[in-house]
Design a protein that fits this description.
With 305 residues, the chain is mostly helical. Helix 3 packs across helix 11, helix 3 crosses helix 12 and helix 4 packs antiparallel against helix 10. The radius of gyration is 31 Å and the shape is elongated. Helices cover 77% and strands 0% of the residues. It contains 12 helices and no strands.
């Protein structure tokens, strides 16, 4: 009876529920990884590979090939793409963390530095009118940055926009011209090319968000100047107020870094080449795998003898 009085049934039930949720989360993770590896695309590609091997066996097609030639053409670009993707991901996460830190530091500066009638009792007051006003501008800025980053533009990168801006796109690609720059040295041609690129950029869905984000930064700059008088200084930069301009510059630099990460992605031609080689290899390598299977069968028979 004494043990029953000490035993906490509620805590035990809570632990059981937590363990069940953790097990369910683990199963969901395993299921997601399985679906990611064995989706419709991979299953269809495996079926095409098997069909290629079957047709090669029926037609008695086989050839010998140095597999490293095919493997190097796929693995090296694929490894490079994966490495660059994770590198860009880590860089984007670090930049987002720095941006949030800059916003918080600038908010605390606007919250605590004004010397109004309630100073110093107003220190740390998140409900003051000036703190609420700056917090609204900062949240609006972060919202527009988030919307710009997450809004799909319809283009893989800036190079595709330049490709569309070229009037002789198909002709340039057929001739192997992938520089995506205006052909010729005349100023009028270069100017028209730049205007077409700018026109396409302005038509993108994320253009309004980046413009709104810069408008929020402009309002922050005005509030920084107003903070000079609220902090009872005669001119900007006195008493450490230059930090506000530095934080604002950090926000602009970090937003532009995220923007460059978005529009200057890993070369899409390299990723498409990997995809094309993988899909072609599923068909072309069928006779090669037939050759390997025949050689392995002959070797097995020799060992049996």
């Amino acid at each position: 009876r004494r043990n029953c009085e000490v035993y906490d049934f509620a805590e035990h039930a809570k632990m059981r529920v937590t363990a069940g949720m953790n097990m369910r989360l683990h199963l969901v993770r395993v299921l997601r990884a399985t679906v990611y590896c064995f989706n419709i695309h991979t299953l269809v590609l495996c079926a095409i590979s098997c069909m290629s091997c079957y047709v090669a066996m029926r037609m008695n097609w086989s050839y010998r090939l140095e597999f490293s030639l095919m493997a190097l053409g796929i693995t090296i670009p694929l490894t490079f793409n994966i490495t660059q993707a994770f590198t860009r991901r880590e860089r984007a996460l670090i930049t987002l963390a720095e941006m949030k830190a800059s916003v918080i530091a600038l908010y605390w500066q606007h919250r605590d530095w004004p010397q109004d009638d309630n100073f110093p009792d107003s220190l740390g007051n998140n409900r003051s009118a000036w703190a609420v006003q700056f917090a609204n501008v900062a949240m609006e800025f972060l919202t527009h940055v988030q919307q710009y980053i997450t809004t799909p533009e319809g283009y893989e990168s800036l190079s595709e926009i330049r490709l569309r801006a070229k009037r002789s796109t198909l002709l340039a690609l057929s001739l192997g011209d992938t520089r995506l720059q205006p052909i010729g040295d005349s100023d009028s041609l270069a100017a028209s090319f730049i205007l077409r690129v700018q026109r396409i950029n302005k038509s993108l869905p994320g253009y309004t968000h980046i413009q709104a984000a810069y408008a929020c930064l402009s309002r922050m700059s005005v509030m920084n100047e107003q903070l000079t008088f609220k902090a009872r200084y005669s001119r900007g930069g006195e008493g450490g107020l230059s930090r506000s301009a530095q934080y604002l510059r950090y926000l602009m630099a970090q937003m532009e870094q995220l923007r460059m990460i978005k529009i200057y992605r890993t070369p899409f031609m390299l990723r498409y080449c990997c995809s094309v080689l993988i899909h072609i290899g599923a068909v072309v390598l069928g006779p090669y795998f037939v050759h390997i299977g025949v050689c392995d069968a002959d070797a097995t028979e020799l060992w049996a003898l």
